[in-house]
Structure formats: structure tokens, C-alpha cells
Amino acid sequence: MHFKKPQPTDVPAFYQGYIASLPDGHVLNLMELGKKRMTDMLSSLEPKDLNTSYQAGKWTLAQVIRHVIDAETVFLYRALTMSRRDSTELPSFDENSWADSTALNAQLLSPSALLRDYLLIRNLSINTFSRMTVDELFFRGRASSFETCANDLAFIITGHEYHHLNVIGERYIKF
């Protein structure tokens, strides 16, 4: 594979911390490591755990997990679009609006349903990125008013999940 960890100047400031916090390693191996961590955490949850929040006004655990899944779905779509040399500018998404929507139906979600959804998108991400050529990985397009490419988005997906798993472990539940 021909992935290259993005330099801070390659990505917007709000993604730089996600990428910088990643341990060294091949991004697909880091995605697999993240999959194991998320799977272990979700497998240890009871349904009541999903409604917990570490502070009033903060997202519930269900909202955080759903956010990770939703963000990966959006980022993967962006990466696929760019890998197909499509220069259409892609819109941003309002993570808080999406989280509020999750709050309306989070009581219907079980740890096993979240795990199922998570594994679907994570396995699709790994499969999609593993099949990209160098040209597909590095074709630059625009999303949320910034320039990026599939390579950068692979690291953003991985770093975003890594960040949120650390937050979950520090503020919600120990796993």
C-alpha cells in the first residue's frame, strides 16, 4: 500500500490533532486495531450504559458511538468520491444535528445493533481503502470547503475513532 501520513499543512487544523495522536503504523493496521478496540468496548456494554453521559449537556455514550459511525460513513463517501476523480465539492455535515437526531431514537439502539452498524462501515472502509491505487489515494478534491484526498481521509477516519475511543475510556466507561 502507498499510504502516507499527512503533514499538518495537508489537513485543516481541526483534524490535525486526530492524526498527530495516532501511534506509528500502517493506517490499515491502525484501522484494524481500532476495530478491535471498538468491538471489545461495544461487546462489554449493557443497554443501560448507552444512556450515560459524563456531564449534563454532553452527548450520551450512544450518541458518541453513533457519531463515530456516522462520521466514518461521511468520510468514506468523500474518499470514494475523490478516488473516482470526481471534483464535485462535497458539503459539510452538522455533527450536533446528527447527534440530536440520534438522541431521539437512541433508546431503540442496543450495543449489538451499534456493533453491527460499526462493523459494516469499518469493514467497508478497510476494503475500500485497501483496493485504492496511488492515483486514487492522492487525487485531491474538496469537502467542507477544504482540499483533501482519500489518503488524508483514511488517517482522519482512523484518528477520529482513536480520539473518541480515548474519550469514551476516560469519561464514560473503562474498557
TrEMBL record:
Database matches in InterPro entries: DinB-like, DinB/YfiT-like
Top-rank taxon: Bacteria
Annotated ranges, domain DinB-like: 35-168
A Pfam family per the record: DinB_2
Classification via Gene3D superfamilies: dinb family like domain
Name of the featured protein: DNA damage-inducible protein DinB
Lineage per the UniProt record: Bacteria, Pseudomonadati, Bacteroidota, Flavobacteriia, Flavobacteriales
